[in-house]
Amino acid sequence: MRVLFTTWASGAHLVPMVPLARALLEAGHQVRVAVPSECAAAVARTGLVPVQIGALPVAVVRAPAVARRPRGIWPTDWPVRPAALTPEQHGVLRACGDRQVRIAEAMAQGLVAFARCWQPELVVHDAGAYAGTVAAGALGVPAVGQLWGSAAVLRLDRQRLEGPPLPGYARLMRRYGADPAREPDLWLDPCPPSLALPSRARRLPVRFVPYDGTSPGETPSPYEARRAGAHPASHEHPGRHEHPGHSGRHEHLGRPGRHTAASNGRRGPGGGPRRSGPVRVCAAWDDAGGPPDTVRAALWAAESRGVEVVRVGSAAEGRPPAGPLHRVLPGCRALLHQGGGAAVLAAAMAGVPQLVVAPRLEHQLNGARLARVGAGMYLPADALDAARPGARAAGARLALDLFALLEQPSYAAAAHALRREALAMPGPDKAVRAVTRLAGPAV
């Protein structure tokens, strides 16, 4: 069987599709991954075969300004209650949907041309790659949408989320002979059921499998090594960022007169009882500019109380990051991040409580669902801006939330329950059977 995968971006869009693609290859099927030329190298690094379908203009990819930091109060379950949204809020969603339609328009010609040549029996596309549904409709084969960890199946291709297709999307579908009402036949959803919002879409839960481009036998991160009993001296604090007043040396954890992370009966980061061993938390940030000043101040406040902060992604702030997030988290007791799907799922698999400072709508959805099940806390990034008491004071308050995650047992208990739920989800091998059945009993 020939299966065509497609996405418009690497990173969080490509990575969730890799486990299924590999499982299909292991089952004897043929796989190709059709992507814009700027994503081809990322596909090749996964060991899959890329097919370049042209380049995406920067102007098409750029997110609309209203979507980067949406203002106002949004219902925590807005995807299932579109009638509760204001006209301005629907305008934000329309801008996001129109952007994805423009991306689909830029991809469709090359994608459909290759699909007609290669004749796949199934198309798998990431949730935001509408061109995948266009190609499946043009060929008359099943389409499978791959979600990447959102709490909702976001139908931004629909007017007001529940209505007919956006005009531009309908025109694109008709251009290639596809039915504008066509939807994916199945959605693959790595989100644990307790975090997911209800949807009429047909969803198949599939366990999250982290992938970072490394081989299974690669040397573990220093934090994994510590848990196994090793203590690599040269990696005591990979990714540390010292703030003014810190020496940058490990000895600050035991300074007299401060709450420390030592296991000698002293009080913990917020003054509560401590477990043995150091208190280690992870800060992961996706934006190229790194965390906002308030988040940096919160991390400095935590370090001043003896907490060891492990920084991943742009949170490393110019220093080498500690390692792939899923490899670092098992040695940590909390994660502070933006609420992206991959980070949410990695922390869920590790059983780690999460503090989400969410700049975008999907991040806010994830944070609200984590708070609902008790596995974390969240606040919109705008809430920090609105107070404007100064980054240091706002950071101190954010640090109190972080300390609460460390000290209140209910958060760890809920995070471990979420881990059990995530681990119980079926793996990619089960998804192989489900998606191949869509193509017909003879496959």
Give your account of this protein's structure.
It is a single chain. Helix 1 (18-26) packs across helix 16, helix 5 (87-118) crosses helix 6 (130-139) and helix 9 packs across helix 14. This protein has 443 residues and is α/β, with parallel strands linked by helices. It is built from 16 helices and twelve strands. The strands form two sheets. It has a seven-stranded parallel β-sheet, with helices on both faces. The chain folds into two domains: 2-207 and 425-438, Glycogen Phosphorylase B (Rossmann fold, 3-Layer(aba) Sandwich), CATH 3.40.50.2000; 222-423, Glycogen Phosphorylase B (Rossmann fold), CATH 3.40.50.2000. Mean pLDDT is 84; it is low at 214-267 and 270-274.
Keywords, separated by commas or semicolons:
Rossmann fold; 443 residues; globular; 5-stranded parallel β-sheet; alpha/beta; 7-stranded parallel β-sheet; 16 helices
